[in-house]
Amino acid sequence: MEYMEEVKVSRHTGRLAQMWIYLGKLFRMFIFQSDWKVLPMSAIIAGLVSFAVGRNMFKTMEGTAMGTFALSCVCIWNGFFNSIQSVCRERAIVKREHRSGLHITSYVAAHMIYQAVLCLGQAVIIIIVCNVMGVVFPTKYLTFPVPYLDFVISLFLTTYAADMLALFISSVSRTTTGAMTVMPFLLIIQLVFSGGFFDLPQNVMPLTNLTISKWGLTVLCSQGDYNSLPMTSVWNNVLKMKDVEIEGEKPILELMVKIEKDGRKEEVLMKTAAYNQKEEYRFDPAVVNECWGWLALWIVVYVLLTVISLEMIDRDKR
User: Fold this and answer.
1) What distance lies between CA 43 and its chain's CA centroid?
2) Contacts of 302 (CB under 8 A, 6+ apart)
């Protein structure tokens, strides 16, 4: 029994008709072959992330950096898992049907539409779960005056870009095992070269533009108004030294008590934050549009690579 159902296409069937045939097959698989499991899995992962890092997300600089990085990772993981096996698990069927008249563009277009629906559903689920877990999203908007819409678009584009990258990897992989083996390495590359969470040498930073995670993290930080938030890590680290004695006195404790008594703690936190602002995270529609543009560009690139690789499937002797 073959892992995937086979769809017979006529040599004279048009591209649009073929696309609808395959799209119908994909949605049948969603219902009858348990592909729907990616949606509750997204909810579980989003819940775990919200529980771990959601408390200070969009409230402090550190919490926002960590939280948005985690959300970007969730999106990339969802996208990878959605389609990493989509093509390689039916490679023999695709090769056979391509020889019978299958248009690769129709086949890829069907996957694009189907995966777009999945990615949109996952983006909405992430927002819902984060809200249920107590994450408070900013009320200010940069692009659309509709609550959460900016965030949904950013989460969707990040997930969809990762999805299309995985679809390309699936199109060139021999087996599902090979594709699943490559996926962790892709995820590590996305995490390390996000450009915002790990300190990288300056000569390596241009490589971050090639990653999905860099643009996903940047757009979420911008929408979360990262640069206007207080920074608490310096205060908290100094607080750990409050019991240090110098000549029988505790000057650090006395200073911190005085700052709090004078009601200037927030001023200190904001002053600390002022020295740690990042220009690339500024609250500006231009930043959002640039990030969305880069994510859209990578989506197009990965789709074209997928089409090219599958157009040569007849030469594949594997």
Assistant:
1) 14
2) 161, 164, 165, 167, 168
**142 located within any domain:** yes
Residue 258 sits in which domain range?
232-275
Return the residue matching tokens 């860099």.
214
Structural domain total, the chain: 2
pLDDT band at 54 (very low <50, low <70, confident <90, very high): confident
Q: Using CA atoms, how far apart are residues 22 and 7, in angstroms rounded to an integer? A: 7
pLDDT of residue 1: 35
Q: How far is CA 301 from CA 61, 81, 102, 154, 206, in A?
A: 33, 19, 22, 18, 18
| Average pLDDT, integer, range 245-268 | 83
Asked if residue 244 and residue 190 are part of one domain, the reply reads no
DSSP letter for each residue of 86-132: TTGGGHHHHHHHHHTT--HHHHHHHHHHHHHHHHHHHHHHHHHHHHH
Report the length, in residues, of the chain: 318
Please indicate, yes or no, whether residues 139 and 171 belong to a single structural domain of this protein.
yes
Q: What percent of the chain lies above the pLDDT cut of 70?
A: 95
Q: What's the one-letter identity of residue 305?
A: L
User: Could you tell me if 317 and 91 are in contact, meaning their C-beta atoms sit under 8 angstroms apart?
Assistant: no
Angle at 78 between CA 72 and CA 81, to 5 degrees: 140
Nearest-5° Cα angle at 268, 262 to 274: 155
Q: Does residue 268 lie within any of the structural domains?
A: yes
Q: In the Cβ-directed half-sphere of 39, how many Cα atoms lie within 13 Å?
A: 14
The SS3 of residue 100 is: coil
Judge if 33 and 144 occupy the same domain: yes
Tell the burial category of 282 from Cβ atoms under 10 Å away from its Cβ (0-12, 13-18, 19+).
Answer: middle
Q: Decide: 313 and 98 in contact? Cβ < 8 Å.
A: yes
**Distance, CA of 253 to chain centre:** 42
DSSP 198-257: S---TTTGGGGGG-HHHHHHHHHHHHTTGGGS---HHHHHHHTTTT--BTTB-HHHHHHH
